[in-house]
Amino acid sequence: MKIKKLIMISLIVAATASYANERTDTIKQINKIIDNAIIKAIENDKTNPYLKQSRIKAIKEQILTAIKKDLDEPGLSHLDIPEILPKIDKEIKKIGDGIGPKNNYRIIQESKEVIQPIEKTAYEGFLRVVDEQNRINGIKSNYWEKGNVKAQRTHNGVDLVPIAHVVYKNAASDSREEPNSNSKIRRSSHTIADLAEKGIGAFDKEDYSELPYKNSDQFYEKRFYFGAGNTVKDIVFLNKEKFSSEVENTKKNKNERYYIEGEYKIVTTNATEDERSKSFGAEKDVNPLDITMKEYRTRIEGKSKAEISAFLKEKMVQKNIKNVIQEGEDLYTVDDKGRKWKVDWKLEPVSVESGSKTEYKDTVFTTINYYSPFNDKSTTDNRGKLLYTKDGSIFAQDKNKYTNDVSLKLTETETKVETKIKKMVRVTRKDEKLVAQLSPAEYEARKNEFSDRSKYKVEQTYDYNFDEVFLISEISKVSKDFDIDDKENIKKFKGYIGTEEIITKKVTETVKTNKEVTKNLNEYIRVAKERAEKGEIPRNQFDQYFYDKKNLTKEAFENKWVKPFKNPDYLKAKENYERELAETRKKMNELEPEYKKAIDDEAIAYDMPNRPSDFYGIVDWPSKTEQQKKAYLNTLTPAGRKYVENWVKAYEKRVKLHAKYFELNALIADGTIAKKYGFWDNPAATAEQKKYVNLGGVDGLIKDLDLTRSIAGKNVEFRGIGRIEGTVDLGEGKNTLKIAEQMTGQYGTSITLGAYAKLKNIDTVEVGGSLSLDDSQASISGRTSLKMDIDPTKKNSEGHYYQHALKDSDPNIRFIKYGTTNMDNRNDFTIELLTSKISENEAIIDMGRKIDYTWHDMKTGKDYDMTIPFISDSIAHQLINNKKLSKNGTSLLELKTREELRRLNSDENAVYRSIRNANKLGILSPTLTTTNKKTTFNTVDEEKEAKKKKDLITYLKTKTNEELVNDLSQFNLSEIEKKEAIELVKKLKNSDDFKSIMNKEKELKTKLDEINNLEKDSNYQNLHFQEIFNKIESDFGSLSSKVYSLYPNEKDLEKQFETDLKREDSYTLVKKAVLLADRNPELKAKLNSIKNELKTKLNDTRELLKKDLATIKELKAKYPNSKFGEIEKTIETILSGDNLERMVLSSRDYNKNSDLADLVSDFKKLVSDISLQLKEKESIEKVFIKIGCEKQAAELFSNLCTYDNALKEGLNTSPLLANLFCYELDADIRSSIAKNVVYTRYGDDITFSSDENNFIKADDLQKILNKYNLKLNKQKTLFAIQGQPQYVTGLSISNREYPRVPKRLKRKVRQKLYYMNKFFGSNSEEELLKRLYGEIAYIIGIEKDLGEKYKKTFLEILKNNNCTIDNASAKTFKVTTAKRIFHYIDESEIIINADKQYLAICVVSIIGDSDKKKNIQKLYDLKNSFLIDARDEFIEKEGLFHYTSDNTEIKIKVQDLLRGLEYEAFIIFDKFNKKVAKEEYQELYYNLFSKVFNKILLNRFGDANNYICYEENSKISTNKLSSYLRNEKHSTKFQIEKISKEDILSTLPDYILGTFCSLAKEEKLIEKIEDQKYPFTLRNLNKLSSKIRLIVDNNNKIYYSRQNNNKGNFLEINRNITG
């Protein structure tokens, strides 16, 4: 044994030495590989500053660090080298590429330097083309320089209107807009004959405009930048042909100024999204030519401009940029006319950040601008050429394709005869045919005749007389070929003894393939005519029409396609059918709001207070008899009875309206109206009911609703300050003109239409004003973005001024507020009419069209009242719209002048009146209007507005109505206007809001006295609050410093604690240290030391708290409005144990880190509670003093608007107070920012918006904030550009239409709702419910429809879990954890024969009131649909939904419905003898039920309230049934209830058991496979299989479930039942 042991030790030592040698050799080999790789890399790139001989040691160390983990592997061997080699190469490449933790060059800000805004194309790109064109023509210009300097983009020197082209990447929309439910189009149709012969000419204009439509891909946008006052004559969009003609004429007349045939583009990356995602940071965008740093060092750095240009030409050619040439030092692109356009380029070595911003890489920032001509032949590029004329016009080439055609989808049938080799199965079987029955003697005589057993089968048997006979059968082989997939017929033909073989066979098949084709109507017609000419087989209705037209006689053709649709009877029936459909839909639409309100009223009534605890509304009320209802009401308290009676009233109203609404709906849905007039297209229809379907034997009608218009057009935007003297014609299509203030340039947007201007081919003009949400603020665009001039020398025969832009404009243009999404705001805009030139005191202006008009919205079917609101540009003039019309039906506006101006003193007004009375006011035009001035943002106006608001608060309280109107009026008002103003003030004073404020002010005097008394109270003065506050702050500051000292590097601490130190306070840091004490072995001792010191410090503080607790309780009772109750509660939580050093006998154990961490949170809350935030209260008092309130009133208002001495989120007054507090702050910030930067503040969130990066610096902003004791939160400061997510006050503003709730919050709420529904728990969830309810309320405030949807789901979940919410406060959730489970029982006897008798019981379990309610509603809906029809007499006699009495049609529909209801079913059956005594029957029944409930249901529904519902029956006793129920293992409660046959939920077990028993009674099922009853019965049971959780054969102790697949087949169940 010793020798053997020694040998083993020797082998182990040898092996260890061998492994050690292998490891050492491998490391040596890897070292050598690294050395060689470094030398090779240095040789390959000798210019690389990071790969040099002097850096070999540093490079090697970096590589070894990267592969350290591999080298430390215990079993390292030469076999691991192939895996390590790529890592070495990768690290060397990283070093060579300059990738590392530090940047070698300046870090590029790609969001600011790389991403090109659209405006850049308009200014820099467009003006560069103009400069180059001038250079080519020998003219020197510097437009590009002016456009390139952002501050000068609106410089007067740029006497051009640059145009930016915006491509809509996803212009085409899949969403199809249909007309409203009342539209004629929804019920009308056109004949194939009409459409085939007339095309869209078959529609009149009104019907065509109502057809459904989709946006095509033929949409784009152009933005015109007018700068600071450019004037344009005409702006006209022309198609390609007309544009070419205009260019030719312009050149011929020598009127061409600039002809723009291309654009300057910037070279961008053509990398795929996948390549971009794999690249280093934004390298692909920064370096679009993919210039390597090696190329930079060898081809760019230190080279001449000519050499660099040669290199760039190579790279541009590689990027497929065509026609690049080099001349000397410069690069050019050459267009098709041979003109050379200079290429501008700029190169710079930079560092780009990685996505994680932990590494940097060297790359070349490449900016190359090159000229690219527009492609006239392109069908996808809709950028068009531009023509600028010397007389000031602009012509734009419109490359969109416009069509009035409509598209439709048809099913085309293509017929082909195909010959092909096909794999088939040849099945051969033996058939036997009885040919003789012989006696033994006869057989003996002829047996040689039947000796061939392959031909004959001989069977010896006995006849009816028990005489021996021989049956002779002739055997024949039969073969048949089948499709290889025809498994069912192969099996059927083959039987048990047949054989199969695979064969190939040549077959000829006529194949018809149906496919849906969508084409334009004209295309269908064109192709159909071609096919008819060629004699092709028709594929669709249009093909058939033209085929018949060619091949049938004229009479036969007209009898088939024309005459049936002109038949007077048909036309009358069609007219009546469409009329009755429209009337029925109209009634439904009229009834729908009332019906929906009734549904809401019923829900509200159910949620009202005082609901009896045993009242479940629709769940059980409908199933009660009238007698039961009365008896139930008599058991209630008066409040409970009143609640139920109110609910019943709402419920009955809803039921009545429900029946009425669905009765109307049934007329359409069930085809009642269609049957009546012969238009019911249904297989079950009689000849009379479908007599007008497929008239003439053809599908000769196309529904108008199946046709789709294709909408194309353009959006054109005017920006800047400018004037248009001539025509604005946007050409073909559905065009929108937008004139609204944008954050562009210095002067906003203010476009003036000259007196002789006109607007043509425009669908909608969107007009805007100030970007600010506050209409009182002065706008950088002045009062409005659109102005209209008027010729004061032109009057018509009626003496009315008429010459202005609307006179000759299209009269049906819709004017609407810019960006309208809510039609309620559609008319909230103004157009300034330049009436200051008119000298008369009173005048009438003919507006040339109706300015009060109606616009019909095709989608909603609504007619909207629209108006074009005009204001005068003069402070002396008033425009009045009395809605008067001229003889021609055009609107008339009255112009009046004021008698005197408040802005003038008495002497000045005297002069003003003399000029006015002389009808010479026109000469004062420059001083009466701001139109001729460049109005910039004016904070003085805003200050005046703010002062008015402040004064109003005091004036409403102290001034009479007349004094208030006089003091606050800007002008001297007329008597009528004064009366209107006084009435307005009266309403304001009588408003509930104002009265509420005044009442509150009185009520709060008591509270103010209480606060004053408290401050004087000696007990209050003796509290140790300040000492406690200072000690806690000091203790946690000291402890957090010790936590910091654990890690020299802050990043290590942040990583270990998974936190951001800049955002965390000392409490949170200490709390995390406590929680990590046992998880970090390296620092366990130090963390435990901190933990113990924490306990000691907190024990000392607890002693101080004990001293104050009794005093706090006294103060709480004495001053109920104070915060002492909250402080007392926190202190008692903290004192829940005698000493933190030992384990305490309470719910907390402070030796547990989690409980100690909770204690830290309590101390943090205590500090917050006792600080009282008095500074904030004082600030609010100061604000009220500013707005004119005396100090006492200021204190009262501050108490009214604060909660616990703090400004709280959610109070209506909080934003107002915050705004007042920040009033001076806002003014300071506005005066410090650029004029084209928009400043927005909400609460304490500040946002700056601009088209340029000219924002205020953070340090400068902080200096302003310091004046108000405010601090900038740098962690929350971010910069976002267009294309990136942009949030203001937590809302996403990426969608320009309206702000939205961030997606992350929506996901969070959806996730919470999901988990709330799935894991609804106990009262501990109350805080979570409150928080979720608050989040949903927040969403409702932003996106109402979405928020209401979430709220509905939230309330449904509460109801399903017996949880209620106090709607008044939304603070109290009463949660009952146990769900209610309803078990409905039915039994049935299965009598197959005398030996096969079974008793089966079915239990259907419904989980929760909500599912019960849904099931009831769906069953009643189906029942009502049958009752409405009421075709059969038995329905009235027998009722509905009883399996044994329902007919087949009803059974099928009920079984289909049961498949979609919410429940689980369990079936158990056992043998019994029908002749047994009643007692034995009952015993079996109880035993079977006991097994289902005690062994199955209790395991599934433990800890629930179970309701066992069974139908009354003489054999079953409630008491007896109860005695069989056991629940020792569960806290289950159960209640047994008898139900009547009328309880509609009894349908569930009745139908499931009925279907099951029908299948069980099918004897010898397999042999009767051909029987039609078998497939029907089995199919219907399998419909319900997903709902049947378990079937138990109690006799054979076998169970069948969906998981038990072998035995789960229902055929197997049947075999066991039938023996």
Secondary structure elements and pairings:
Elements: H1 2-44, H2 56-66, H3 68-71, H4 81-96, H5 110-113, H6 118-136, H7 143-148, E1 163-167, E2 189-191, H8 192-198, H9 205-210, E3 213-232, E4 235-238, H10 240-252, E5 256-260, E6 262-266, H11 273-278, H12 283-286, H13 293-300, H14 305-318, E7 324-327, E8 330-334, E9 340-353, E10 360-373, E11 386-389, E12 394-397, E13 406-438, H15 440-446, E14 456-462, E15 468-483, H16 487-494, E16 499-520, H17 521-534, H18 541-551, H19 554-561, H20 568-606, H21 626-634, H22 638-669, H23 672-677, E17 701-703, E18 708-724, E19 727-729, E20 736-739, E21 750-753, E22 758-760, E23 764-767, E24 786-788, E25 814-817, E26 831-833, E27 842-846, E28 852-856, E29 863-867, E30 870-872, E31 877-885, E32 891-897, H24 906-917, H25 925-928, H26 939-958, H27 961-968, H28 975-990, H29 992-1016, H30 1018-1021, H31 1025-1045, H32 1050-1057, H33 1066-1076, H34 1084-1118, H35 1124-1134, H36 1153-1171, H37 1174-1186, H38 1191-1201, H39 1213-1221, H40 1223-1230, E33 1238-1242, E34 1245-1249, H41 1258-1266, E35 1287-1288, E36 1291-1292, H42 1303-1318, H43 1326-1342, H44 1344-1360, ...
Parallel strand pairs: 3-18, 4-12, 4-19, 18-20, 18-21, 19-22, 20-23, 21-24, 23-25, 24-26, 26-30, 39-42, 41-44, 42-43
Antiparallel strand pairs: 1-3, 2-17, 5-11, 6-10, 7-8, 8-9, 9-10, 11-12, 13-15, 13-16, 13-18, 14-15, 27-32, 28-29, 31-32, 33-34, 35-36, 37-38, 39-40, 40-41, 44-45
Helix pairs in contact: 1-2, 1-4, 2-4, 17-18, 20-22, 27-28, 29-38, 31-33, 31-34, 31-36, 33-36, 34-35, 35-36, 37-38, 42-43, 42-44, 43-44, 44-45, 45-47, 50-51
